[in-house]
């Protein structure tokens, strides 16, 4: 075969190039911009993602916040401390009780007050009950997001029993506003301990059911394994906390690292997983529910007798100071940076919500993923919009 | 509690050693370490806190700001305090406010391996507050800085996307500044503020004679 | 005179009967859907409307749908948008038409009836694509495309699973297939058994593919309420949405009926060794009882469909395609080969 003359080869190359270019023009397909939210069935409230979609692939996502911004930090500047307790209940509305804890602890720390042991135990029990109720919602609703309707009804049924317990103590199901500076409002009602023990058995049963029927399901595993990988360094740099970071292989838990309430005296495991994917995050929450059951049982065993309120002045006046208190909330680390300049009203309250940081990883995470996986990832991060927007 | 973690005093000491004259003030009040650095050392300080072997604060908790204002009503409470703590001024563990009006940027960092944490602060001048972006150090600073920008009007230098995060684009003003008043509160004072009962000693003294006549009138 | 009238109006009578069957079956199965799902999910389901366990609930729903405004989005392709639900329901009616309900109760009786049934069952896809495209809604569009991709991928396993049955029966006529099953003795014994035993692989494939054809969990991506709001039906309201709703259950009925006829012995097979024809009943009664037997089998299959629907999460689009092309279709081909060899050898 004779060698091709260079001129001809160049021409051939040029024409091939031209053909390629023509092909490229003909096959060019513009990406579609898709608005996911603010009113979308699975964004847990009014969350919006402006997504660039190419068929079933999502190329780029830009979360838009602020549809539920209620300005808690500004509102806190014109309210007295007890009034803010009511306010912060609404941050993460699924576990309202847990939101009160770090705030009250911060105020107590600034004032130099400590709640009596019985009050501390009651607070711990209620926190863990709120955690269980939140995680039961997660276990059910994550199924729904992946298309399995049935687990939701079963977990919601048992969550109702947990909420009944909380209601029995505090009078409120979601927003108890039960903490006072220096203690809690009321003692436990009669029969609470036995009822709680029973409900804890129920919770354990439903967790086992969910573990075998949902987590053991092939399709569930296929949908979640390896989806939404968050490496540890990335998660930490974005301030992710709670089960989200524990599923990336970092055994942090404020309850153990910086014990508050009575967690120091209790035995529980920090659930950890190093698979970094959606399945690991869901699995961590499931295991943490069981750990919470364990904590509640221990608290019930050890519940001391005694007063439920420390001696506290009638008007809460906080001396000048600045303190950051944090707690392990169901969604992650919730913290309040309280600055007081004396008086009944704080000078500034910075609310560090877990969901805000957890969600801030989304622009990085949602790149080149399947549309269906977007929902898997959003669900596995488990955020509450009130907690993102504050 | 993690036994490896440093005590607040040790944390401030380490940072003083590392940053030397760039540290403006330190505090260990309420057993929490906080270090105030010069604005030009802001990014460096955060990077050091993350990378130094002794500190290893790899968890970015939050970034926010506070506006210190010494308007008439707000100064009252603090004036008396600063006077009474004058003799113990040397002690680090006593809480002190900044001396002059400023914006203070706060950044909370925790260590997941050692368990301790600290708050880094820097004071910015009131008129045109500017600060360098932390995004090169912690990617998660992105949204926190956007929030700070719109809420306080602090300019973040080098932020890739300085758009508003929560507020509508057309929104004017910076809601978390002290001079931004809640409109509803201007119209009507907070009703909750008046239903707090007075302390017994603060209660207005009732004239006993007036009370007795009133009683007599009823009976 | 009666005969003349009958001959003249035969087509009209058939059409009326067909609509009646489709609507009634959609109603009954729709109600079954509410109740089965409710009890699976630890609920009681509708209890009020119609006094007895909410039997009139769907009637109330249908009335509600009809009262609602029939909204056509401003940018929609108007005529295509309006016609799509009708086409989907129409396709389902056509599938029902091919089902023999008794020895003499059928709407059509063709030599290639299986072929016709499968052909018209994919007609609804066009309607779904029309709905998705014409709605001028991105979610609808994605739902429509998903539906088409899925229905194309699962049409093939459906056909392949049926081929095994056709080979065994040696006919594509559904009556022949039904009768063949009443006479099929397992391993040469006299104990008759329908094809779901010798064709167990094909039966499994048929159930899976039918579930996908009906777009039910775990294959409900075209609707995927947590991803696509309501897929191709997002923009529909009022009685047009009702059409989609009806066609969903009507297609459930048609698929369950097809499965009963192909694998469970249709109207004839009762128990091992017992078939309807053995009793020598008058034709009318034979038809009547045969239809009853078929309905019982349909109910059984429908329950299986609903059971899967309430149990499984949803697959992802690519996993769905992989499942069809990588597993179902090769298995189907092997099944055909094995069936063919056995048929020739035996």
How would you describe this structure to a colleague?
The complex is a heterotrimer of chains A (390), B (219) and C (346). Chain A is 50% helix and 13% strand. By secondary structure, chain A is an alpha+beta fold. In chain A, the strands form three sheets. In chain A, strands 1-2-3-9 form a four-stranded antiparallel β-sheet. Chain A has a three-stranded antiparallel β-sheet with strand order 6-7-8. The longest helix of chain A is centred in the middle third of the chain and has 29 residues, at 117-145. With 219 residues, chain B is of the alpha/beta class. Chain B has one domain (8-183): Beta Polymerase, domain 2 (2-Layer Sandwich), CATH 3.30.460.80. Chain B contains six helices and seven strands, in the order αββαβαβββαβαα. Chain B starts with 7 loop residues before the first helix and ends with a helix. Chain C is mostly helical and 346 residues long. Chain C has one domain (68-345). Helix content of chain C is 67%, strand content 1%. In chain C, strands 1-2 form a two-stranded antiparallel sheet. The longest helix of chain C is centred in the N-terminal third of the chain and has 39 residues, at 2-40. Chain C is globular, with a radius of gyration of 21 Å. The termini of chain C are far apart. The chains are: A alpha+beta (390), B alpha/beta (219), C mainly alpha (346). Chains A and B meet through helix 2, helix 9, strand 6, strand 7 and strand 8 of A and strand 3, helix 3 and helix 4 of B.
Describe the largest sheet of chain B. Answer: 5 strands, mixed
Task: State the major sheet of chain A.
Answer: 4 strands, antiparallel
**Tell me, what's the shape of chain A?**
globular
**CATH hierarchy, class of chain B:** Alpha Beta
Name the average pLDDT of chain B. Answer: 75
Cα(first) to Cα(last) distance of chain A is 76 Å
Structurally, the number of domains of chain A stands at 1
How would the blueprint of this fold be written?
The complex is a heterotrimer of chains A (390), B (219) and C (346).
Chain A: H1 6-27, E1 32-36, E2 48-54, E3 57-64, H2 72-75, H3 81-88, H4 96-111, H5 117-145, H6 150-170, E4 179-180, E5 183-184, H7 192-215, H8 218-224, H9 232-237, H10 243-246, H11 254-257, H12 278-302, E6 321-329, E7 332-340, E8 348-352, H13 354-359, H14 362-365, E9 369-370, H15 371-381, H16 385-389
Antiparallel strand pairs in A: 1-2, 2-3, 3-9, 4-5, 6-7, 7-8
Helix pairs in contact in A: 3-4, 4-5, 5-6, 5-7, 5-12, 5-15, 6-7, 7-12, 12-15
Chain B: H1 8-19, E1 23-27, E2 33-37, H2 42-51, E3 59-68, H3 72-84, E4 102-110, E5 117-124, E6 130-132, H4 141-152, E7 155-157, H5 183-187, H6 208-218
Parallel strand pairs in B: 2-5, 6-7
Antiparallel strand pairs in B: 1-2, 3-4, 4-5
Chain C: H1 2-40, H2 57-67, H3 78-97, H4 113-121, H5 124-134, H6 138-169, H7 174-182, H8 200-213, H9 225-228, H10 238-263, E1 269-271, E2 274-275, H11 283-311, H12 317-345
Antiparallel strand pairs in C: 1-2
